[in-house]
Specification:
Layout (H helix, E strand, L loop, with lengths): L7 E8 L8 E8 L3 E10 L4 E10 L5 E9 L5 E6 L15 E4 L5 E8 L9 E8 L10 E2 L9 E7 L12 E7 L9 E8 L5 E11 L6 E4 L5 E9 L3 E9 L10 E2 L16 E5 L2 E8 L5 E6 L16 E2 L8 E7 L5 E7 L10 E7 L5 E7 L5 E11 L2 E10 L2 E10 L3
Antiparallel strand pairs: 1-2, 2-29, 3-4, 4-5, 5-6, 7-8, 8-9, 9-10, 11-12, 12-13, 13-14, 15-16, 16-17, 17-18, 19-20, 20-21, 21-22, 23-24, 24-25, 25-26, 27-28, 28-29
Length: 419
């Protein structure tokens, strides 16, 4: 049976105080009758495109797949949109969203979560991926990331690719994920690392950390010096769930010992469902995360002058981002070309029992000093799971899920953040 998909696109132009092209805010709303769209993710390719992916599931619960939209990264004009081949069965989940990463020579990997096929646990997941060697024109069949039959649950993955002039010749894409193999205790997951080559093969798969909080997303980025940075939430001393950091200085051959980005000592016997995020600028590594220890909501820190031993990184004292709001979660951070930092998160407004979730936004200097905070809100919609991508100059792209009762859509905007 042939199934035809029709995508309704609403384009809304909103202007700030100036009507110059630089200061316009463009908004695209992706929705479709009979379908729910959620789990947006933003990245770019080497051809001047901003790429938005999201998960779509029909309201009957029988069909789902990943969608993609392509924009001109300079003008933010939508160029095309389409369902990605061979992604049927994607399981929409805001912390386990589909993610796309692209190399400069047109090798793309799109990874996504599905229901587990080798587990009786209804909450278990499986990671699959499709790849393209021609910048998204054609896609491979879906393949499981893990073929080891002893693995019954894989989730909360992150992709990374080397950038800049020092790219390794292999042009492979790195991936980390949580796995139920090698568990020392009933609770907690193992963090695995591997590479996906342009031939589509998975290699160098190995465990690199243990006892991860099993329902918080992981984060990974590879900087221009080819250092692999990884952050995640770990279960420490049975009930502490703090954010950990580790790195590789030899392209994934070895990794440093995990260390805490902040000694929060958050004691909780439950999963917060909110992982960390990272960005890098000339000042160093920037980290945001959620905790309810000695404060509530979103916090920020950055690396300070490196000690003599590069295997250990020093982090500054944490700073509160979201105000004393325990509902503030799902923090994201992006570095603008001049190094300034944009942070986003979702939250319910304080002291309100009727308001919908909104997106918090904050601008900081390159060295982490607060500049301003503002909000994106919709009086009839819960705004959830924001993602960010710097566009150039004073602009950043943000995408998020807009939840209206049982219906959801994806919103993508370019924002002028000012000075």
């Amino acid at each position: 049976m042939k199934i035809c998909f029709y995508l309704w696109i609403a384009l809304e132009l909103i202007f700030w105080t100036s009507c110059s092209q630089q200061q316009r805010t463009f908004e695209y709303v992706f929705k479709q009758d009979g379908w729910n769209f959620s789990c947006p993710y933003l990245t770019s390719d080497a051809r001047g495109h901003l790429l938005l992916t999201w998960a779509g599931a029909d309201t009957s619960g029988k069909q789902s797949q990943v969608w993609m939209a392509r924009f001109n990264i300079h003008s933010f004009r939508l160029q095309d949109k389409f369902p990605v081949a061979h992604t049927a069965g994607v399981y929409p989940h805001g912390e386990n969203l589909p993610k796309l990463t692209c190399t400069e020579d047109g090798f793309w990997v799109l990874a996504f979560g599905t229901v587990a096929h080798r587990s009786s646990n209804p909450y278990a997941g499986e990671i699959q991926y499709v790849y393209s060697t021609d910048a998204g024109r054609h896609w491979s069949a879906a393949q499981p990331l893990v073929t080891d039959s002893s693995s019954h649950d894989q989730r909360y993955f992150a992709l990374g690719v080397a950038e800049g002039e020092n790219q390794p010749a292999s042009k492979s894409i790195s991936i980390i994920w949580m796995d139920d193999r090698l568990k020392a205790r009933p609770e907690g997951s193992t963090l695995f690392f591997a590479r996906i080559s342009p031939s589509g093969n998975v290699s160098d798969s190995k465990p690199i950390a243990y006892q991860l909080c099993p329902c918080c997303r992981t984060a990974m980025l590879i900087d221009t010096h080819q250092v692999i940075h990884i952050a995640y939430r770990q279960i420490l001393s049975d009930s502490i769930r703090d954010i950990m950091y580790m790195a590789s200085y030899d392209q994934g051959k070895t990794f440093t010992q995990p260390q805490r980005v902040s000694v929060d000592n958050w004691v909780i016997r439950a999963c917060p469902h909110s992982g960390p995020d990272m960005a890098v600028n000339a000042q160093g590594l920037q980290v945001v995360w959620y905790t309810l220890s000695h404060g509530q909501g979103i916090f920020y820190t950055h690396t300070v002058a490196s000690p003599a031993d590069e295997k250990h990184v020093a982090f500054a004292a944490r700073q509160q981002v979201s105000g004393f709001n325990m509902s503030a979660k799902h923090a994201q951070i992006a570095a603008l070309p001049d190094g300034r930092l944009v942070i986003a998160w979702d939250e319910f407004p304080l002291n309100s029992t009727t308001a919908h979730q909104r997106i918090g936004m904050q601008l900081r200097t390159a060295d982490g000093k607060w500049i301003k905070t503002w909000y994106i809100a919709d009086p009839g919609c819960d705004l959830q799971f924001p993602v960010l991508f710097p566009l150039g100059g004073d602009r950043v792209a943000i995408a998020y899920t807009c939840q209206q009762g049982r219906r959801s859509m994806v919103v993508c905007r370019s924002l002028f953040v000012g000075k």
